[in-house]
Amino acid sequence: MDAVAEWGLHLLNEHAEWALFLVLLLEESGIPLPLPGDLVMMLAGVRVAQGRTNPLLAIFLMESATLIGSSALYWLARRGGRPVLYRYGKFLHLELDKLERAEDFLRRHGRLAIVAGRVIPGLRIPTTLASGVFGVPYLTFLPPLALGASIYILFFFFLGLTAGPGVVRALEGPHFPLRTLADLAGVGLAVAAYIIIRRRAHLVTAVHAMPERKRIETALMAGLFATATMSLVLDLLINTLATVGHTTPAAALFELARAFARHYGVRPAVEVLVAAIALYVVLQLLWAVAYSHVERWLPEPDWLGGLLFALMPLAFSLWVVLPALGAGVAGLSLGMGLVPLGGEVIRNGIFGWALSTSYTLLTRARAAPRKSKAPVAQQPV
Fold it and tell me: Domain check: are 146 and 241 in the same one?
């Protein structure tokens, strides 16, 4: 992953403005990346110090990417995360009265909390998610988001601006053990919470009878969650293997990036990268919509049906996507043996499991009416 991160830094060096916007947009949207956004902000400051980037343009792009990505994540959390929390919170000892008190507190004192959460490293994404889940009005959420984001961006930007080339030397071989450990802890907590919810709520299959519009919207939410989960788990898996000396999967991923660059070398790298990421996300969402229309005929429980469904995107990836990227059928042209094939099996298996299980949680939560506290009866005088 160091090589992939260095390739990302090279992309930032060659196409700073567009790549700067793209990296921050993806990170703020909740998509895990091997290159942290704060390092990208520092690199932007370095480029300004070297006279290679307009400072106002760099700050505008960073602020715009943050606002757009955070807004997208906010609305996703508000539409999908809110019913999930109110439907399953009781299984995690988050009773309705506690949730309503937390929501009321965030509504009354949320501005300061949002600013603080956006400034403290590691809390940017959770702050956005909490604001959406607890129903903070968007017009209340947006100003403190912009203020907190500006403080965070300017801090790292001026750090790079004043430190100069020293930051570049520090980024030449980036290692992120603390980031990996934090991601691992996050995944562990999420999986534990899911297992507890699933067992206590007796979830086996999704709701089949849904209006078509609601079905597609739920499928898109599940598809985004599955895509982010797949990316995060693969990142952790590859980094863990590399830590114990097994670097072949990381090398195969980097070789795929090289083959991709060679195959489409006639176009600017940043244009190809933006198009590839957009098509990749769209493809995963299309698979999610397809799953929502066939899951009723798949075997139970849902995770088994999800793994069976994953055979379709797996076959499409091996025979269509990888050859289109210049890697050949099943990635055999990369010269890495069966490693690309094994990686695709694992990747699509994770996607199928995450898609099916999250779709079940979301359909059950969104189909159940939200319960509110019953009014306290007045005692007769």
Answer: no
